[in-house]
Amino acid sequence: MPVVTAIKRQARVGSNRFNIFLDDAYSFTLSDLDLSMSGLRVGQELATTEVEQYAQNAKEAKAYALALRYLGVRVRSRRELSEYLTRKNCGQDEIEAALERLEGLGLIDDSAFAAAWIADRLAVRPRSRMRLAQELGAKGVARDIIDLALEDIEPERELETLKSVIERKRRTNGYEDDKKLVAYLQRQGYRWGLIKEAMEQLGEAS
Q1: One domain for residues 143 and 87
Q2: Both 10 and 96 in a single domain?
Q3: What pLDDT, on a 0 to 100 scale, did the predictor assign at position 121?
Q4: Which residue segment(s) compose the domain that 15 sits in?
Q5: How close are the terminal C-alpha atoms of the chain, in Å?
């Protein structure tokens, strides 16, 4: 049976992970907590099935740690995390295990992600419902979740958002012409009826 010949802390500064060597060859990595709980020690013999289980657990732990760091930047959709872990060369089994664990902890929730995405976009750079739906779709959020999240945008709020967009674009060179402005707004996903209403209201207010 394979024998644990060395347990070495990874060289990276501040690392809490340890490389486990079996028969003088690197085999798998454990966190300090997992190492402590495992009871592994130099000279210990391991059955092949034990080695395979440790190796699989190590891969799943790596995927989970990568996902947590990625989530630390901002909230992510499930597909964003899956694609990120794939780019990091994690296997599909490890990815699914990590995502299921994160979902169980409430750290992955596409409904919450959609709501946060919409709130952020409307606060920083207002855009149409259609554009928001397109952006969320590109993030892999399901259509029914998108539709439900967009229900929270009252028609009056979208109209006010559009009016602020029009006012901002009017201050930009080249958008004094109505046709050019309307064409821009339609490319952003705003319906002609809503554009017309917003422009009329702004005209009445001027």
Answers
A1: no
A2: yes
A3: 86
A4: 4-104
A5: 85
